[in-house]
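Session log. Operator J.P. requested a structure for one protein chain; no other inputs attached. Running the standard single-chain path with token output.
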Amino acid sequence: MGNGGECLVMLWNTLTRGIEVQPAAVHLHATRTLEVAVVRGFAHNLHISLHVHANANAAAFGIRMRGAGNCEQGYELIIQP
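Structure written below.
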């Protein structure tokens, strides 16, 4: 949300094929692959809230913040259920 409480429009760049971008959600269909979607242009002090629904056989999922290039650099948060 922006400073006034309005929802921000997120512009996604999908780097892999198994991604479905919808107005209220991004679905990454990673079947034996790594799926990557990038959103850019937000302030460094943005509050992020995620709802992750991983499949039972998911090996790991996560986010990378303040990345560069095609996600080669940045701060990673990886969750291994």
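Operator note: The chain has a mean pLDDT of 81.
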